[in-house]
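re the bet — no i am not wrong, look at it urself. input seq straight from the record:
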Amino acid sequence: MAAWCSIVIPARNDAAALAQTLDALDRLHGRAGVEIIVAAAGDPVGTTRAAGERVRLLWPGPSTRAALMNAGAAAAGGDVLFFVHADSVPPTDALVRIADALADPRVVGGAFEHRFAERAWSLRAINLVNRLRYRLTRNWYGDQGIFVRADVFRALGGYRELRLMEDLDFSQRLKRRGRSVLIRAPLVTSGRRFLARGPWRTFGFIVWLLALWTLGFDTERYAERWRR
């Protein structure tokens, strides 16, 4: 059976989180006609063990997250591409909601509401601010589960292979092609990076990057600092 939707997961040294995400994807409603592609870099043993036989596993080589997603999309056979980070869990009816949204021919793609898995008050406050941002701008972060018609993705040239802000850059271009919609159901993602580095310090750095990007400044030089 040909796939109507291809779920593309970029994974870099995320074996434990990837295993949990794949378990969650197994529970999605409407899984018929859906393929899962993991485009991986880093730990081959852990990633291969986590993926098992249930996904198509690609090894494009050391690369940015954008390059991993582009490699996964290039191998995808679905009419719809659904990008899910390795530490994120979509709602169980995500596929049904995507199909419903794309039933409107004016809709070219979109994303989900965002929520952190951890319930720390700082993360809840950060999430509220972020929610206001993306509802106003329709610029999605990658951990919101961006989905897009495959033909539109290819017409846009996929993700630009940036080390930072590739998701905002793509969603900015996406909404120029048609309606980019927000699905009002949360995709739950790990807040471990925020908690490990300090929630407000991390959030402040993201706001700084977002301001630079919005004003047209180059953010690539901050990529290594973000990875640390």
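see?? The chain has a mean pLDDT of 92. told u. also Residues 5-193 form a domain with the Spore Coat Polysaccharide Biosynthesis Protein SpsA; Chain A fold (CATH 3.90.550.10). so pay up
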